[in-house]
């Protein structure tokens, strides 16, 4: 059993920008030299989150519309009175979706479906440089 | 430390069909021969998701009603224009709930509560055959 | 590679009580003697959940308001007819947010952001004593 920790830096546009990080995660798993194990992905920061989705432009639009409908930006947030940076909705959305994802891989292949990509969602209301931690454990 | 990867195949009815997979997960953990560790469960596919719930018929009905209320099927989805398979809502729900779950076990016992079962939810709009990956790591 | 399982007991007030457990998780990781690895946090029970958030009082209020808006307490739940304990909304919320969280640590430091705390949310409708499982794996 071996453990390898890596990180990936990505630039986002904010405002529910959805980045496909599948190829980067695949590359880091390959670099680790580990054949079978789990990659734990973790988002450092409290206005970003991670999940999987079929990375299809119209579906990404549906996903964004859902957040605008369910946890809207344009309603009052107490948090916005504290810091005045207007991203109360970003924090609430990120906490609901969550910062961690664990994906097994077998013979160096992630166990994703054909139409299933790993995505980082930046809920903040401005462009950000983000760090994603990848911890690969296995043998 | 050892790592064992298994999979479980389940038949679903789709349309928010909720399957209790606790006994299958317990059995696979026992088969692994590992006494203490974590089982990482991962759903291959982008219209299914995993969580825990008290597997009580009326609560399952409440859970389904919540999805119909918060992320309804009968509103327009852009994704449905792309493929015409009418499952835009299925994808959005699955991405929110998420494809992975990590559960520790101690002395071969999952650390679940008495009224807490592991469930696979098939949000797709038709019956599906699904594969769930179980990766068991420990000693 | 080593594996250490610990647990933390916390008292909550229920009704969406949000407890910052970051310092307790940090302490348990330090006690484990493991320098690099992942801590898997798991909530035993079906009316509590775990995530990360900026632990700022006004944001916590926003987070609670979101649950009251999206998965309200004061609508009919079938589950409440089964047990009569009035916590149907608690179960549904907990299943959506989820019971597990995996956080990598490097050189004994959790890879959290400065404004990102680990929180346990007790959605039940009464004070509870809760057990959180921490499983630490690494080297």
Task: Write structural notes for this entry.
Three copies of one chain form a homotrimer. The first copy, chain A, contains four helices and eight strands. By secondary structure, the first copy, chain A, is of the alpha+beta class. In chain A, the strands form two sheets. Chain A has a five-stranded antiparallel beta sheet with strand order 1-8-3-5-6, with helices on one face. In chain A, strands 2-7-4 form a three-stranded antiparallel beta sheet. The longest helix of chain A has 14 residues, at 57-70. The first copy, chain A, is elongated. The first copy, chain A, starts with a strand and ends with a strand. The interface between A and C is medium-sized, with 28 and 32 residues.
Total number of strands of chain A: 8
The DSSP helix count of chain A reads 4
Q: List low-confidence stretches of chain A.
A: none
- Note the run of SSEs of chain A as H and E: EEHEEHHHEEEE
The secondary structure category of chain A is: alpha+beta
Which word captures the global form of chain A? elongated
The assembly state of the depicted protein chains is: homotrimer
N- to C-terminal distance of chain A: 5 Å
Largest sheet of chain A: 5 strands, antiparallel
Q: Identify the biggest protein-protein contact and residues per side.
A: A-B, 32 and 28 residues
Sequence of strands across the biggest β-sheet of chain A: 1-8-3-5-6
Helix content of chain A: 25-40%
Beta-strand content estimate of chain A: 35-45%
Average residue pLDDT of chain A: 97
Write the layout of secondary structure elements.
Three copies of one chain form a homotrimer.
Chain A: E1 2-12, E2 17-20, H1 22-32, E3 37-43, E4 48-53, H2 57-70, H3 79-83, H4 88-97, E5 100-106, E6 109-110, E7 117-122, E8 128-138
Antiparallel strand pairs in A: 1-8, 2-7, 3-5, 3-8, 4-7, 5-6
